[in-house]
Write a structure and sequence with these properties.
Number of strands: 6
Number of helices: 7
Strand order of the largest sheet: 4-5-2-1-3-6
Order of helices and strands: EHHEHEHEEHEHH
Shape: globular
Helix content: 40-55%
Radius of gyration: 16 Å
Distance between the termini: 35 Å
Length: about 170
Amino acid sequence: MYYVRKLSKPSSLYKLKTLDNVKNLSADFLGQDLRTIDNTLSVWRSETLEAGDLNQAINAALLASSQVNTSQFLVIDSEALDDVGIRTDDSQPGKTAYVGLEQLHTNLFDLTYEKIGQLIQIYCDICNDTQRTPKIEKTKFKEIIVEASNQGKLNITVLQDHMQKEMQKILNSS
C-alpha cells in the first residue's frame, strides 16, 4: 500500500532534497506541508505504484486542492509508516471533486512531534526517487478536470467557492 501526499508547492521538494538534517527544516515547512487537524494528516491511498492506481490517488488529491497549479506529490510506502509506528485510518471519506475516489482518502492519525519528525525523514528518504515524487503541471491538472467532467465524474460543489469558480472557468474555456 502507498499513500500520496500533495506538497503545498513544488519548491517544497527542493527544500527536502537540500536538507542536511531533519532538525534544520524550517518551521514554515511544517505549517505549509505538514499542517495537521486533530493530530491527523490527510493522504490518498494507492494499492500499487502502477500508473493506474497511482493516478487515481493523485487525481483525488488534485481535485481536493484549493488551487489549480503545478502540483508536487510524495508517495509514501506503508512499510515506512509501519516501521515508525504511524497508523492510518480509512474511515473518513475525502472531500474531492472527483466522484468515486472519495474512499481512497486516509488519515495518518495520532501524530506527535516525534512522529512528524519521522515522517519528515521518510519524505527525505524518498525525495530523490522520481517514481515517488510525481509532479503534475498546471496544464495537465486542467486536462484532468476536463476529463473528469467529460466522464461525468466531477462534482465541484464539494469544493471551496473560489475553487468552484476556478474549475468552472476552466470548463467554460475547454
